[in-house]
């Protein structure tokens, strides 16, 4: 039998804690996804999306040096097959975000109706702001009445069959005008996803350009629809993030306490767990079991959201979820939806961790399910804590926690960025725009997305971001990428020393890190709003496509990332992905995504490279191209522009 290939853990991850646990897992004869990835050679045909199984005349594989040398049995070309596969990734990713957003809206409706006493409207000011942004009257009205109207209005995001989704009102007019011209303003998410699935059925849409048009419409229903509703409603119910110090990395586990971990994407499960672990009765039970207390930690995106909102410690990103269980220190882990590896089940069993699924959408064979009912949230979370306490009392496994943790500042909602840069009396994006115009800040980049065992964990994120800030590019982050950089220590104001002179000066003046974490992957909508605010504040063009900004998902893995990428591109942002790009090169479809959308349709475009330095170069070149088009590429005096000077500059451009 052939020897199994063993890769040095140092080549698989740059996270020292994860590396230690991978070594331990191997010694314990437990397989986690790093080693499964080595064993599972990626299928090269699938990697290029050069296969189709949309009907039983196939599956058809178009393998050839010349992508046009073969066609499917039905005659489908590589462009049709590639576009259909890509579209289904968009549909699935958009469905995940919009279904999550709809759950948040369901919760909001029930809270407003007074049916869930555990939750309330924590941020009435945000409620008013969001309501006003979609045209609801807020002056001299009761909060409950505004909330009821907001629910009715936002439900249209999902169910509307004709017209434009409510948050289209937040899109800069020039960008919206372009969408209208292209016929891609979303109606309602359900309709867009349904139509995209219909069009990609065998024998329906067989023109890649037409398929891409519906991809954009569906992805926009995610970014400016489902995801944006999820973020805004979560802020209204649980509080809008403001900067908060928080620890990340596996060292947040505490051997002497009952360790409870929540992993997934739904803040309501996590918020309820926060109440459960703080309940004096629960703490008493834990102490009676011999623990010093209950230690709640997060993972993945709901973890990033709770870190940003409340400073709850975060134990690691997507590629560390199995590794965390190898510590033997996790007494209970509750998961909800998205990015939950099935492999967790076996690893939990090996280390005697109590693993629970909680959401009706996500069961795992062999894993106990304790359903989370939003009307009685504590039933589920109290039970998970109780079973965790029981496990602590009877701990059989040796505990080995890598003593590594990093402090950082998280919670930069777009509202806070507004306040932070403008100050109490001048709260606006004007200072950000001014600093971009005067060249202290070269541009803004969104670096987001997953980690992926096909590349060295965290490494691409960290190298890319270091390169960007060194070149005076301010970085906004979400999701697993935020955790990669937080572990690398870039979430402290002191990290300004890694930034170029201009960006460092701004960071030092304001007291902020050069890398700002804004939350979970659904919270990418905060980056869209920040981009819109930059347009509305003036001096940087009239549409999002004019801004000196770029996006990247350097270690992406999920279909949600493809939907996110497409909504950034359709919004006007150049977006570069790493790892691999799931379409065949040298095709008309590839040319459309990587060039045509920008040059012929006034959007952004896609880019690809697995190399972080090349990625930074591509993004900076794009930012410089936009600076040049705006006429702000020349060196300028390092002065803050006042309104008059900015007006003059606008007139000159
Ligand atoms: Fe093959 Fe066409 Fe059927 Fe796809 S739809 S499996 S390309 S015959
Ligand atoms: S959890 S989608 S691995 S960011 Fe949102 Fe992380 Fe990517 Fe999942």
Strand order of the largest sheet: 6-5-4-7-8-9
Helix percentage range: 40-55%
Which CATH class of the largest domain is shown? Alpha Beta
Average residue pLDDT = 94
Shape: globular
CATH topology title of the largest domain? Rossmann fold
Total beta-strand segments: 16
Backbone CA Rg: 24 Å
Second-tier CATH architecture of the largest domain: 3-Layer(aba) Sandwich
Give the helix tally. Answer: 26
What are the bound molecules?
A: iron/sulfur cluster, Broken Fe4S4 cluster
Derived from helix and strand composition plus strand pairing, the structural class reads alpha/beta
How many structurally independent domains?
3
In whole angstroms, the N-to-C terminal distance is 69 Å
Strand content: 5-15%
Main beta-sheet annotation = 6 strands, parallel
Segments where pLDDT lies below 50 for 5+ residues?
636-643, 649-653
Give the structure's gist in a few sentences.
This protein has 653 residues and is an alpha/beta fold.
Helices and strands in order:
Layout: H1 9-12, H2 16-27, H3 33-39, H4 44-47, E1 51-52, E2 60-61, H5 78-112, H6 124-133, H7 143-159, H8 173-182, H9 189-199, H10 208-238, E3 244-248, E4 258-263, H11 267-278, H12 280-288, E5 294-299, H13 300-310, E6 314-316, H14 321-325, E7 332-335, H15 343-350, E8 354-357, E9 368-369, H16 377-393, E10 406-410, H17 414-422, H18 430-437, E11 443-447, H19 459-470, E12 473-477, H20 479-487, H21 501-510, E13 515-517, H22 524-537, E14 549-553, H23 559-571, E15 574-577, H24 588-601, E16 606-608, H25 612-630, H26 643-652
Parallel strand pairs: 4-5, 4-7, 5-6, 7-8, 8-9, 11-12, 11-14, 12-13, 14-15, 15-16
Antiparallel strand pairs: 1-2, 3-10
The protein binds iron/sulfur cluster and Broken Fe4S4 cluster.
């Amino acid at each position: 039998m052939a020897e199994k290939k063993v890769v040095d853990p140092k080549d698989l991850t740059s996270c020292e804690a994860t590396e230690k646990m991978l070594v331990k897992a191997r010694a314990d004869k437990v397989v986690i996804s790093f080693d499964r990835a080595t064993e599972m050679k990626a299928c090269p045909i699938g990697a290029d999306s050069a296969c189709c199984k949309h009907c039983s005349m196939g599956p058809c594989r178009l393998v050839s040096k010349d992508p046009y040398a073969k066609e499917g049995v039905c005659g489908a070309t590589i462009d049709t097959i590639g576009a259909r596969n890509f579209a289904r990734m968009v549909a699935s990713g958009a469905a995940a975000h919009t279904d999550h957003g709809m759950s948040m809206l369901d919760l909001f409706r029930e809270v407003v109706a007074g049916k869930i006493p555990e939750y309330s409207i924590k941020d009435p000011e945000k409620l008013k702001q969001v309501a006003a942004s979609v045209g609801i009257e807020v002056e001299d009205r009761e909060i409950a009445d505004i909330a009821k109207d907001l629910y009715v209005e936002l439900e249209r995001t999902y169910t509307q069959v004709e017209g434009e989704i409510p948050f289209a009102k937040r899109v800069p007019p020039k960008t919206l005008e372009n969408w209208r011209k292209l016929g891609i303003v979303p109606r309602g998410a359900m309709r867009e996803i349904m139509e995209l699935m219909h069009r990609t059925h065998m024998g329906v849409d067989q023109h890649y350009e037409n398929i891409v048009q519906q991809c954009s419409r569906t992805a926009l229903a995610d970014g400016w629809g489902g995801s944006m509703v999820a973020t805004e409603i979560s802020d209204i119910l649980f509080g809008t993030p403001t900067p908060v110090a928080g620890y990340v990395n596996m060292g947040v586990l505490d051997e002497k306490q009952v360790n409870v971990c929540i992993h997934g994407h739904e803040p309501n499960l996590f918020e309820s767990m926060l109440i459960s672990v703080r309940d004096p009765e629960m703490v008493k039970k834990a102490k009676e079991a011999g623990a010093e207390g209950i230690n709640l930690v997060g993972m993945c995106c709901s973890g990033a959201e709770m870190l940003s909102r409340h400073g709850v410690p975060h134990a690691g990103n997507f590629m560390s979820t199995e590794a965390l269980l190898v510590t033997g220190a996790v007494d209970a882990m509750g998961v909800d939806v998205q990015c939950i590896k099935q492999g967790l089940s076996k690893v939990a069993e090996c280390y005697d961790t109590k693993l629970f699924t909680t959401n009706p959408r996500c069961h795992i064979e062999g894993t106990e399910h304790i359903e989370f009912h939003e009307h009685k949230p504590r039933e589920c979370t109290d039970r998970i804590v109780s079973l965790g306490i029981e496990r602590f009392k009877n701990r059989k496994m040796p505990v080995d926690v890598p003593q590594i943790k990093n402090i950082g500042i998280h919670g930069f909602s777009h509202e806070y960025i507004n306040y932070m840069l403008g100050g109490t009396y001048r709260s606006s994006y004007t200072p950000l725009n001014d600093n971009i115009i005067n060249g202290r800040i070269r541009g803004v980049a969104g670096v987001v997305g997953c980690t992926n065992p096909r590349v060295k964990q965290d490494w691409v994120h960290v190298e890319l971001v270091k390169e960007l800030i060194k070149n005076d590019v301010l970085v906004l982050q979400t999701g697993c990428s935020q955790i990669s950089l937080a572990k690398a220590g870039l979430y402290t104001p002191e990290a300004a020393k890694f930034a170029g002179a201009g960006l460092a000066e701004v960071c030092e003046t304001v007291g902020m890190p050069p890398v700002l974490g804004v939350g979970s992957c659904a919270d990418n909508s905060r980056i869209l709003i920040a981009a819109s605010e930059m347009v509305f504040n003036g001096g940087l063009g009239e549409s999002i496509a004019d801004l000196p900004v770029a996006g990247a998902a350097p270690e992406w893995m999920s279909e949600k990332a493809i939907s996110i990428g497409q909504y950034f591109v359709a919004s006007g942002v150049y977006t570069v992905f790493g790892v691999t790009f799931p379409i065949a090169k040298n095709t008309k479809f590839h040319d459309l995504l990587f060039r045509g959308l920008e040059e012929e349709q006034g959007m952004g475009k896609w880019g690809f490279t697995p190399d972080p330095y090349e990625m930074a170069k591509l993004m900076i070149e794009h930012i410089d191209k936009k600076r040049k088009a705006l006429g702000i590429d020349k060196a300028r005096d390092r002065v803050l522009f006042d309104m008059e000077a900015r007006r003059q500059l606008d007139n000159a451009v």
